[in-house]
Amino acid sequence: MKRALSRRTLLRGAGSVAIGLPFLEEMGFPTSNAATTAIPNRLLTLSFGLGIPTEHAELGFRGPLEPFRPFANKMAFFSRLDMSQADTYGSGTTHFKTGDVLFVGEPQKNEYTAAGPSLEQIMLRELHPAGSPTRISSTSAGLWFTYGAPSRYVCHWNYDGSPGPAPERRPSRLFTKIFGDPLPAPTGLSSDLELAQQRRLKRSILDTVLEEYKFAISDRSYLGADSKAKLQIHLEGIRNVEQRLLPAETALTPAAAACMPTTTQKDPAGLPYDQETPLTPQPAGVFKPHSAPMDHVAYMETFRLQAELFALALRCDIFRFGSLLCTDKGGNLQFKGQYTGASVGTINFDRETATDSIHNELFHRQRLTQIAQYQHYCMSGLASALTALDDPLFLESNGKTILDNTLVVIGTEYGLDHGLSGVFHAVAGGHGHFKSGFFQDQANVIDLYDTLLKPYGIRSGIGTRHAAFKYTPRELSALLA
Known about the structure:
The chain is of the alpha/beta class and 481 residues long. It contains twelve helices and 13 strands. Helix 5 (190-202) crosses helix 7 (225-252). The longest helix has 28 residues, at 225-252. The chain starts with 9 loop residues before the first strand and ends in a 28-residue tail after the last helix.
């Protein structure tokens, strides 16, 4: 009789290292603990700054949405959503107000406080009232280089409206959070920094689980040939990501070359990398771009690493809920180099953002051609996150990919040039609960959010949490499978 393998089996190494396993055939054998093979409910939010004008979104895959073409049968697109409640209450500019409404639905209480929880926090609490079933309850990551009110870059909002942790910008720290660290954290001394850099470049956390791995693939192991091969690919994938961490961070900003995850070196805004906070004050209406233009290739490679780490964490069931940010709300970034999208042509960032940010140079001037090119660039990043989740080598117990078994909600902050109608959203995966296609419903974002939660048996309460705002959601029945 074959031995059943628990979904919680780990390869444990030195320090805090604990490498989770993907779903293996041996986890599917009937056991007294049938819950170990159940498909977990998951929800991720993916966001990007500024917006996609309705006329561009409704070009379908002939415009900025072209990178999503491989997922056409797994995605639903909305091009005419309304977010006008963002102007109902609150304070600050449009970016501050819409930032709190995105994935929450109701108008902010103030520029530091949302009306209530974000979607992934609602599902986490409603489906797991006794507490998170995973080691990490939820996590946030993403690339952002502006500071100020948390609504500019936070997508995780708690039930009391307070912002969750600032998104983890550095893939190396996200890697350590997910898989652990074989050695004590460096103190900041030069010798410790050199040791940390050497460890990143020459060694691997997998070195500390080598003996367990050798046993798992040996003749004495109870794993079958297919599971042994899958385990090897899984660990090679972790090592591949690990080897790319420091080079990617160094290419994005030279400060990373001398700064490992837990040092006290300052980041470009003058804050310690390990003391970033979503409450760093910045006057409303003041937008500071990154201190220098960033290479667009290095930027997107760093984001892809974050996306791959999210996929690995979901594969290992380390967390099930989170948010991933491609660009900050407000788009106060400057890039260098040229980017070409097959359906939209080439944007020369050296020219377009030489003196000011994407926000000011393109969106304030409503330069539609360049806006389409920039948003194609952003969509290529988000599509890479879906690719990482849709890996056919790591099917789950129902024979589907992690993307299929995860509700992914993609959203932005407004339509064209701060307009609160014609706001773009998309839905991917969703456990088979939703239909794919392009929807032109002139609905509120609350309608979409409430409809997305309904198949999970969740009555969201969105539309009733803000003391002075009452809204009764209407179901988008055409979206439901």
